[in-house]
């Protein structure tokens, strides 16, 4: 195991009705004037926004609202949010929504105290400070409620890029699994896929002897394999929703990834799809992640066998371990299909003729990237091709 620091200071406020305490936690973490940031319609329609506002009123905390965050959140609304927060002397940002809303809130939080262009933080610079952020999570997916990351798309050129800083880890995150019951099945499945991908990006490692994090990864993955079909079949299943919601957070606070090298190439390769086609991040991952696995599994066949056996219940074929590794990847793709995810470019709405553009935007040039297996631009093109033509 490699040396590591683990810093996860977010207070998670989990369970039924807990959104009614949002105001209490804003106050606890020093908010005296709040920007409530939210998405399209879902938080308004469900009455969640009214309940959150009532909780702020109860604590006597004033607020202004900024809605309209799109999935794959854009820089244009972030600029608007920064201006609004400065004009209104906001000192706390409360995100009510999913990963897109939370990421947009984090971007505004970094931008307000910064004299330069907030996009600097999405071009390699780390933010030293940010306004405090709290969240009321409405979808189990991105893990942004417990992460120090934010992903924003620059409208000019549709560049999707990430920023990381301990300063944007939420002070608190309210997590009521009931709030996720209004999700359409497709969004539930996209979220489940993202959660599993966050674990896989950590699971496939060259670091030896990491039994504890291997087993934690497998626990999260096996939970997702069991619980996702249950909520697709019965959206109001509280216990299954609760297990998935906590799995989503555990998958991305890095508790399952410390002390081991990681490989985030599937995420990078996917981000170009959601940037170009504005598809859901999880749907893009459903197409890319198994294709990446098919491309790299020979690098460590036994690790893929471990996944196949422990996560998907495949039988180990000791005479032909490669067949077990391949069976595990097939089982993953079958699982994704069964929960309603696309498995190839056609089902996603992507075009094989765009592969050169996707590779160009990935921006590797003559370089290489990756933790488990280093990839060149040619390799990335090959993975897009496998994804384009994938079958069950
Ligand atoms: O805008 P509204 O009307 O709220 O609708 C949203 C949106 O259309 C809807 N939704 C959310 N909660 C709902 C609901 N509909 C009904 N009932 C509810 N309870 O779901 C749609 C998707 O929401 P979004 O926030 O986009 O989903 P998600 O949480 O998957 O976030 C995706 C974004 O997070 C980024 C992705 O790249 C993508 O931009 N990621 C962020 C990460 C991070 N910050 O750590 C890591 C991830 O790997 C990921 O890249
Ligand atoms: Zn993700």
Structural class by sheet pairing and helices: alpha/beta
- Unreliable runs, pLDDT <50, ≥5 residues? none
Which CATH class of the largest domain is shown?
Mainly Alpha
At the fold tier of CATH, the topology name of the largest domain is Dehydroquinate synthase-like, alpha domain
Count of folded domains:
2
CATH H-level superfamily of the largest domain:
Dehydroquinate synthase-like - alpha domain
Question: If strands are numbered along the chain, what order do they take across the biggest sheet?
Answer: 1-8-5-4-2-3
What form results from the Cα inertia axes? globular
CATH architecture of the largest domain: Up-down Bundle
The Cα radius of gyration reads 20 Å
How far is the first residue's CA from the last residue's CA?
36 Å
* Structure annotation, total helices: 15
Q: How many DSSP E strands? A: 8
Question: Can you describe what's shown?
Answer:
The structure is a single chain. By secondary structure, the protein is α/β, with parallel strands linked by helices. The chain has two domains: 169 residues, Rossmann fold, CATH 3.40.50; 204 residues, Up-down Bundle (Dehydroquinate synthase-like, alpha domain), CATH 1.20.1090.10. Strand 6 and strand 7 form a beta hairpin. The chain is globular, with a radius of gyration of 20 Å. The mean pLDDT is 97. Bound molecules: 5,6-dihydroxy-NADP and zinc ion. The site of zinc ion has 6 residues, from helix 6.
């Amino acid at each position: 195991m490699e040396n590591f620091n683990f810093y996860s200071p977010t207070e998670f406020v989990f369970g039924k009705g807990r959104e009614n305490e949002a105001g209490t936690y804003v106050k606890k973490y020093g908010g005296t004037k709040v920007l409530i940031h939210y998405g399209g319609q879902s938080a308004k329609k469900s009455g969640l926004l009214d309940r959150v506002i009532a909780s702020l009123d109860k604590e006597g905390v004033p607020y202004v609202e900024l809605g309209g965050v799109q999935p794959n959140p854009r820089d244009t609304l972030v600029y608007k949010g920064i201006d609004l927060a400065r004009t209104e002397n906001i000192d706390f940002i409360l995100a009510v929504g999913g990963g897109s809303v939370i990421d947009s809130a984090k971007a505004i939080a970094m931008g307000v105290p910064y004299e330069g262009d907030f996009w600097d933080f999405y071009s390699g610079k780390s933010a030293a400070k940010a306004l405090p952020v709290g969240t009321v999570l409405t979808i189990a997916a991105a893990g942004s409620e417990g992460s120090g990351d934010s992903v924003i798309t620059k409208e000019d050129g549709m560049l999707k890029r990430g920023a990381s800083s301990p300063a944007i880890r939420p002070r608190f995150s309210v997590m009521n699994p009931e709030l996720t019951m209004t999700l359409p099945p497709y969004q539930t499945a996209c979220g489940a896929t993202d959660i599993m991908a966050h674990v896989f990006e950590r699971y496939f490692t060259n670091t030896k002897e990491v039994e504890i994090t291997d087993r934690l990864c497998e626990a999260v993955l096996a939970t997702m394999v069991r619980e996702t079909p249950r909520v697709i079949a019965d959206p109001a299943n509280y216990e299954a929703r609760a297990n998935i919601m906590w799995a989503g957070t555990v998958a991305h606070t890095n508790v399952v990834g410390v002390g081991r090298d990681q490989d985030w190439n599937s995420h990078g390769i996917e981000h170009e799809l959601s940037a170009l086609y504005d598809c859901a991040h999880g749907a893009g991952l459903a197409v890319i992640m198994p294709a990446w696995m098919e491309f790299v599994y020979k690098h460590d066949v036994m690790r893929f066998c471990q996944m196949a056996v422990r996560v998907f219940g495949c039988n180990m074929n000791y005479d032909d371990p490669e067949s077990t590794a391949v069976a595990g990847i097939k089982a993953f793709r079958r699982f994704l299909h069964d929960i309603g995810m696309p498995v190839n470019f056609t089902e996603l709405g992507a075009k094989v003729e765009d592969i050169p553009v996707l590779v160009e935007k990935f921006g590797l040039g003559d370089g290489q990237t990756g933790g488990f297996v280093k990839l060149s631009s040619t390799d990335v093109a090959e993975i897009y091709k496998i994804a384009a033509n994938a079958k069950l």
